[in-house]
Amino acid sequence: MEDRWHDIDLILNRAGNLVGPGFEPGPELRDLLQSDDTRVLCVGAGGLGCEILKDLALSGFVNIDVIDMDTIDVSNLNRQFLFRPRDVGKSKALVAAERINARVSGVQVVPHHCRIEEKPAEFYKQFTVIVLGLDSLEARRYMNSVVCSFLGFEDDGSTDFSTIKPMVDGGTEGFKGHARVIYPGYTPCFECTLWLFPPQVKFPLCTLAETPRTAPHCIEYAHLILWGQVRQGEDFDADNEEHMQWVYQRALERSQQYGIPGVTYQLTQGVVKNIIPAIASTNAIISAVCVLEAIKIVTMCSPGLNNYMMYMGSQGIYTHTVAYERDPKCPICSPGVPLDVEQSMTLKEVLDKMMVDPVLSTLLKKPSVSYGSKNLYVAQGIFEADTRVNLQKTIGELVPDERPILTVNDKSLSAPMRVMLRFTDKMVM
Ligand SMILES: [Zn+2]
């Protein structure tokens, strides 16, 4: 069994000129990897998640948690190799954990079958490193906002290093993939480089209605235009077989009318659900990069990826690494948008001031504000009445702090942002 860690020991027990800063080789590094203090969270147990869990378990990590809200579908089985036909309908997180625990002795995978939003921030705080194997931008932004919310700042606005929660993100799309390492407050967070995710390509409606040229045009015509005309008041549900069949039949009719080949049921599903075929080998490659980065973060055995690697495998193999830069004004990972207020102003007046601030007024519509874990004002829902009383209290009374940083949430934001209050009446003293 000692031989089992031969390869990882070669990395951890030897020095060299490729090791990370401050790296000291030795057997205690594997002990560190396997100690109770080193906990890794894998977010997602799908195509990428299965690979990440397997790689973590075989690379020497012992304490692993996995979170995923999905259940296993028969179409997952070609690549999500931890699942079997008898598992269809069961929780991905539960089955994945069970399989790894059964196959890799000594490993403890703890499953969480729920939405990532259901866990409190404290849950995410316990992990040494968080590895993301997700397929949606929204989920990534959410996880990003969670790790960035842990950030603390020094008086000069620099990041308090003890509050950094490293995160490794993997993503694949067909033959393309990326891996990135995020040290919030130090390397760019998701919001700093949001432009990396281009908006989804949509066809102009006039093309769909007047001049269809391709099979996807016919499908989108049936999906976006015909459905609303013929089945008024009915919400289209992409998971409803009858709905999908209806769109497919209408798209087929239209394609025959225009002499356009290529409309199939499978393509209809692909276009409507915006599915790009998942490629198992891309998941394997990206997962390997992510887990290697997790090992580096914990052991410092090699300098980390700085900070974004893309992989392209559609025509040969090409990889490229870019050191993206932080956006110093990022609302999520910077110390916050500054707002000059007086301590004697009421919370209501501070909120009003936000709505005329040149930066904040463009971002906010109906802000809710909290300070630490305390809700100062919740603009919507059942807590509105409870917190309304605070509107008349002064901000000095509510936020007795030298460097008060408020967390502001708003329906128009995808994640909470920070506002740093500057007490102008204090500066006079
Ligand atoms: Zn940022």
Task: Describe this protein's structure.
With 429 residues, the protein is an alpha/beta fold. It has three domains: 2-198 and 278-322, Rossmann fold, CATH 3.40.50; 205-272, Ubiquitin activating enzymes (Uba3). Chain: B, domain 2 (Arc Repressor Mutant, subunit A), CATH 1.10.10.520; 337-428, Structural Genomics Hypothetical 15.5 Kd Protein In mrcA-pckA Intergenic Region, Chain A (Roll), CATH 3.10.290.20. 35% of the residues lie in helices and 16% in strands. The chain contains 16 helices and 13 strands. The protein has helices at residues 6-12, 28-33, 47-58, 92-103, 121-125, 137-149, 205-210, 215-230, 241-258, 265-272, 280-299, 347-354, 360-363, 383-387, 395-398, 424-428; strands at residues 39-43, 63-67, 108-112, 129-133, 167-173, 176-182, 308-312, 318-322, 337-341, 368-371, 374-377, 405-409, 417-423. An eight-stranded mixed beta sheet has the order 3-2-1-4-5-6-7-8, with helices on both faces. Strand 1 (39-43), helix 3 (47-58) and strand 2 form a beta-alpha-beta unit. Helix 8 (215-230) crosses helix 9. The radius of gyration is 25 Å and the shape is globular. The chain starts with 5 loop residues before the first helix and ends with a helix. Zinc ion (ZN) is lined by residues 188-189, 191-192, 327, 330, 332-333. Zinc ion (ZN) binds at residues 188-189, 191-192, 327, 330, 332-333. Pfam families: E2_bind (PF08825), ThiF (PF00899). It is an enzyme of class 6 (ligase). Pathway: Protein modification; protein neddylation.
Topology (elements, then pairings):
Layout: H1 6-12, H2 28-33, E1 39-43, H3 47-58, E2 63-67, H4 92-103, E3 108-112, H5 121-125, E4 129-133, H6 137-149, E5 167-173, E6 176-182, H7 205-210, H8 215-230, H9 241-258, H10 265-272, H11 280-299, E7 308-312, E8 318-322, E9 337-341, H12 347-354, H13 360-363, E10 368-371, E11 374-377, H14 383-387, H15 395-398, E12 405-409, E13 417-423, H16 424-428
Parallel strand pairs: 1-2, 1-4, 2-3, 4-5, 9-13
Antiparallel strand pairs: 5-6, 6-7, 7-8, 10-11, 10-12, 12-13
Helix pairs in contact: 3-11, 8-9, 8-10
Bound molecules: zinc ion.
